[in-house]
Design brief:
The structure holds two protein chains of two kinds.
Chain A lengths: L1 E4 H15 L3 E5 L25 H5 L4 E3 L4 H12 L4 E8 L7 H7 L3 H4 L9 E6 L14 H5 L5 E3 L4 H13 L4 E6 L6 E4 L12 E4 L4 E5 L2 H15 L4 E5 L2 E3 L3 H11 L2 E5 L7 H12 L9 E4 L9 H7 L3 H19 L1
Parallel strand pairs in A: 2-3, 2-4, 4-5, 5-7, 6-7, 10-11, 10-13, 13-14
Antiparallel strand pairs in A: 1-8, 6-12, 9-11
Chain B lengths: L4 H26 L14 H8 L7 E3 L5 H6 L4 H9 L32 H15 L5 E6 L6 H12 L4 E7 L2 E2 L2 E2 H4 L5 H6 L5 E5 L3 H16 L5 E6 L17 H10 L2 H11 L5 H24 L17
Parallel strand pairs in B: 1-2, 2-3, 3-7, 6-7
Antiparallel strand pairs in B: 4-5
The structure holds thiamine diphosphate and magnesium ion.
GO molecular function, one term (chain A): oxidoreductase activity
Enzyme class (chain A): oxidoreductase
EC number (chain A): 1.1.1.-
């Protein structure tokens, strides 16, 4: 166990699984880098350096740089998965899903069911996502609700280095297609990560903080925003439970519902656009299944229904922040105070 | 091809403007004044200018993530571009787009594009408009060597041939897509002959040579305006900088990079050519250099001092009912 970054944690998971299982291959653009150039091999190791060192350890046969051709990358990975490899395909930015989605949601996601349970598609698709870098409208989105909507796909969104490693190993060992999403702003955060391989199961939320006044559910970078809000609230005697579902398909309804039953209040924090979002989904099952425990309406703190703007002032206004979460919680408590009067 | 002194001066001024603009952006980015990331066009100036010199505001271009040169060559306002890259309210897109999304619809500039392979189908659409409405406008789809491998590119080329549309595909082959070389990523190693397989005239030219680009574009344009359908130009050039500002470029040897800058400079080629044939005086060109330098320096100052967008701009320009 030692302190590692989110980036290192993912790299270690890939290393460990490639070591353990020769069928695991990594496929993507510049996952090594330097092919056909005049410089050194492994010049990129992924555009964020996440796959660095893999080509040195496992060679170009298993760390496969591709042309810019995502449809063929995803289709090739799906075809290889259904025939015996265990590919980890990298999409780079999740925004690029638009050019290759068919191979994922009509093909890979549906094989097992459509073929009457006779196919296995052990495929992992890694992609980074999220705003905060002024990367503009086509490099900053949170599209996890797209994937969560599709039966047959599993969707993993870690928020800590520990979870990133354990969930990625679980994803690689899983026999279904898994979308593994990495928030770009989390690559440099640090946390304790065991050196050896371990798994974190899908469909088990993590409860990062416990308090009796309100339940705050958040994903990825927003988990850290929620924790910051919880800190501020605690200073004025308001105690929040903060839950990170970690996977949105499957999603751990029970942990969320149990907490809401205790606190009677729910705030969901989501960096994605609000309509048909995870925030809406979580609010919906809570309203459905914990209705009588609710003491106040459910609040969603999300980005607005706009593309992600480039200018830093606009982007800062776009991304949900701890102040907004804190205000939402206080509003819920005020509603109860008003009703008692 | 006969060219007037005035045309030559304009060509040089545009290429110099692109170079000076990119040098200024590079400096401002390195000092932390520009948010996000930027991809510089230096080394490819002859492509944008040799192509766009033939076009006017009514014609269309679709661009790439490396789009500053295309914008300048198509006549976008320099101050508006610089402010956009700085994320300011006075930018061409109000600061909402940034370097990778500069667009100026009135100038026929349909946008830089952060999705590799995003533009070619859009340019084909602009060509469809021209053909359907019976105007004599044409569309140019700029793409990189890397982008030429996208399915969208292949589909757009076939569609343009099938519908005989006035579109010109220009692939700027600068040798690399991020950190991957063309010799690895282009299976046939020949982008133009791959395009020829779709059934349109396709050639490769020396993209460092303004005159070669200008001549190839003249022919392609005559075909497009004359109703003979699409053409393809592979323009071989070099990238003077990294993929993005700050790229350590480990995939490229020092020698190669030095040679790229020394021998692969379209501005130096242009100067040598017009000097040798006594078309323009070196002093005239020096004067242009100085004027451009001033213009760009002023644009940086204006962009630096310009106002940020108002936070309320976040919620405009999109359908919002809640
Ligand atoms: C669909 C998509 N895939 C990948 C990327 C990431 N990306 C941005 S630029 C680039 C390389 C493009 O190479 P090329 O087309 O040769 O253009 P150049 O950068 O050389 O101008 C890549 C892979 C992207 N922006 N969009
Ligand atoms: Mg290129």
């Amino acid at each position: 166990m030692s302190k590692k970054t989110f980036r290192q944690a993912i790299n270690e998971a890939l290393h460990a699984e490639m070591q353990r299982d020769p069928r695991v291959v990594v496929i993507g653009e510049d996952v090594a880098g330097g092919a056909g150039g005049t410089g050194v091999d492994d010049a990129y190791g992924g555009v964020m350096g996440v796959t660095r060192g893999l080509v040195g350890a496992f060679g170009r046969e298993r760390v496969i740089d591709t042309p810019i051709t995502e449809s063929a990358i995803m289709g090739m990975a799906a075809g290889a998965a259904v025939t015996g490899l265990r590919p980890v395909a990298e999409l780079m930015f999740v925004d690029f899903i638009g050019v290759c989605f068919d191979q994922i949601y009509n093909q890979a996601a549906k094989f097992r069911y459509m073929f009457g349970g006779k196919a296995k598609t052990p495929l992992v698709i890694r992609a980074m996502f999220g705003a905060g870098f002024s990367a503009g409208a086509q490099h900053s989105q949170c599209l996890y609700s797209f994937f969560t909507h599709v039966p047959g796909l599993k969707v993993v969104i870690p928020s800590t280095p520990y979870d990133a490693k354990g969930l990625l190993i679980e994803a690689i060992r899983d026999d279904d297609p898994v979308i593994f999403l990495e928030h770009t702003k989390l690559y440099d955060i640090e946390g304790q990560v065991p050196d050896e391989a371990y798994t974190v199961p899908f469909g088990e939320a993590s409860v990062l903080r416990e308090g009796g006044d309100v339940t705050i559910v958040a994903l990825a970078r927003m988990v850290h925003v929620a924790l910051e809000a919880a800190d501020r609230l605690a200073a004025s005697g308001i105690h929040a439970t903060v839950i990170d579902p970690r996977t949105t398909s499957p999603i751990d309804e029970d942990t969320i519902l149990e907490s809401v039953t205790e606190t009677g209040r729910l705030v969901v924090v989501d960096e994605a656009n609000p309509r048909c979002s995870l925030a809406s989904e979580i609010a919906a099952f809570a309203a459905d299944k914990a209705f009588f425990a609710l003491k106040a309406p459910i609040r969603r703190v999300t980005a607005p229904h706009t593309p992600v703007p480039f200018a830093p002032v606009l982007e800062a206004a776009y991304i949900p922040n701890a102040g907004q979460v804190e205000a939402a919680v206080r509003q819920l408590l005020d509603i109860n105070a008003d009703r008692k009067r | 091809m006969q060219m007037s002194r005035e045309t030559l001066r304009t060509a040089y001024r545009q290429m110099r403007t692109i170079r000076a603009f990119e040098d200024a952006v590079n400096r401002a980015f390195s000092s932390g004044e520009i948010p996000g990331f930027v991809h510089l066009y230096s080394g490819q100036e002859a492509c944008a200018v040799g192509v766009c010199m033939h076009l006017d505001d009514h014609d269309y271009i679709g661009s790439t993530h490396r789009g500053h040169g295309h914008c300048i060559a198509k006549g976008c306002d320099i101050d508006g571009m610089m402010m956009e890259i700085f994320g300011k309210a006075g930018g061409l897109c109000g600061g909402k787009g940034g370097s990778m999304h500069i667009a100026d619809i009135e100038r026929g500039m349909l946008g830089a594009n952060a999705i590799v392979g995003g533009s070619p189908p859009l340019a084909v659409g602009a060509a469809l408009t021209a053909k359907t409405l019976g105007t004599d406008r044409v569309a140019v789809a700029f793409t990189g060597d890397g982008g030429s491998n996208q399915g969208t590119m292949f589909e757009a080329m076939n569609m343009a041939v099938v519908l005989k549309l006035p579109v010109i595909f220009v692939v700027e082959n600068n040798g690399y897509a991020e950190g991957t070389g063309v010799d690895y990523a282009i299976g046939s190693r020949d982008i133009a002959s791959r395009a020829a397989g779709f059934g349109m005239p396709a050639e490769h030219i020396d993209g460092l040579d303004f005159f070669a680009v200008y001549a190839a574009m003249a022919e392609a344009l005559a075909r497009a305006r004359g109703g003979s359908g699409p053409s393809f130009i592979e323009s071989r050039c070099v990238r003077h900088h990294g993929h993005y500002c700050g790229d350590p470029q480990g995939y490229r040897s020092k020698e190669e990079l030095q040679a790229a800058r020394a021998n692969g400079d379209p501005l130096l080629h242009f100067r040598a050519r017009v000097g040798a044939s006594a078309l323009l005086e070196a002093t005239e060109l020096d004067t242009i250099d100085a004027e451009v330098e001033q213009q760009i320096a002023a644009a940086v100052v204006r962009a630096r001092e310009a106002a940020d967008p108002s936070p309320s701009a976040l919620l405009t320009d999109v359908y919002l009912s809640y």
